[in-house]
Amino acid sequence: MLHVINHPLIQHKLTFIRDINTSPKEFRELVDEVATLMAYEITRDTPLEEVEVQTPVAKARGRVIAGKKVALVPILRAGLGMTGGILKLIPTARVGHIGVYRDPQTLQPVEYYGKLPEDIAERDAIVIDPMLATGGSAAAAIDIVKKKGAKSVKLMCLIAAPEGVTYVSTRHPDVDIYTAAVDERLNDHGYIVPGLGDAGDRLFGTK
After folding, report:
1. What pLDDT was estimated at residue 202?
2. d(C-alpha 2, C-alpha 49), whole Å
3. What is the CA radius of gyration of the chain?
4. Measured between alpha carbons, how far is 123 from 56 in angstroms, rounded to an integer?
5. Which residues 6+ apart lie within 8 Å of 120 measured at CB?
6. DSSP collapsed to 3 states, the chain
């Protein structure tokens, strides 16, 4: 299922993330902020259980998070730009890393690194990548996470192309996709239009 998060604060910040005149410092800060805001939505269905606490006045019934814990799995390197923002909201999450790059000639994903929490099968996994373009890298990362035993997987990105949404949904129909925008299309080089350019380069000031 596709979830497009249209919160005004997210859409406001996303506009400046897209802007070519936004500096790497500002870009990193905005991506971090949007990731935190998106994390509120992606955790909306987290189960709760009732507990009793003692306030300074009397005993009170409250609710705390129950059940599985979270594993964040950013796709290197651009996914790292969103991870810190999510950790602000879920500081107890474990963080794995998957290195997948898109071959510039074939546009096919190539895996070069992978390290995941040992107990990922017992956690809700959130695969993170700012751009869902062709969907090849995201689908490959989800394959890796599932092979390690994860049964609950979500995909989180800033911007998606319709082609990428279709590809991931076809390969992994059980994975919910969360994004702040679905753009028009991919160009001949596999970049999202209008998109925001190369997220990794803009995060880290490289070309």
Report:
1. 92
2. 28
3. 18
4. 35
5. 71, 94, 96, 145, 148, 149, 150
6. CEEECCCHHHHHHHHHHHCCCCCHHHHHHHHHHHHHHHHHHHCCCCCEEEEEEECCCCEEEEEEECCCEEEEEEEECCCHHHHHHHHHHCCCCEECEEEEEECCCCCCEEEEEEECCCCHHHEEEEEECCEECCCHHHHHHHHHHHHCCCCEEEEEEEEECHHHHHHHHHHCCCCEEEEEEECCEECCCCCEECCCCCHHHHHHCCC
**Per-residue pLDDT tens for 59-94?**
999 998 887 789 999 999 899 999 999 999 999 899
Residues 160-195 as b/e (b if ≥16 CB within 10 A, e otherwise) read: bbbbbbebbbeebeebbbbbbbbbeebeeeebbeeb
Q: Which two tokens stand for residue 161?
A: 């192309």
Contact by Cβ (8 Å): 51, 73: no
Tokens linked to 164 = 């990428």
> CB of 144 within 8 A of CB of 98?
yes
102 CB burial (10 A radius; 0-12, 13-18, 19+): middle
Amino acid code (one letter) for 17:
I
Interatomic CA distance for residues 139 and 126, integer angstroms: 13
Residues with a known catalytic role: 102, 106, 198, 201
**DSSP strand pairing (97-102 vs 109-115):** antiparallel
pTM of the model: 0.91
Type of residue at 42: I
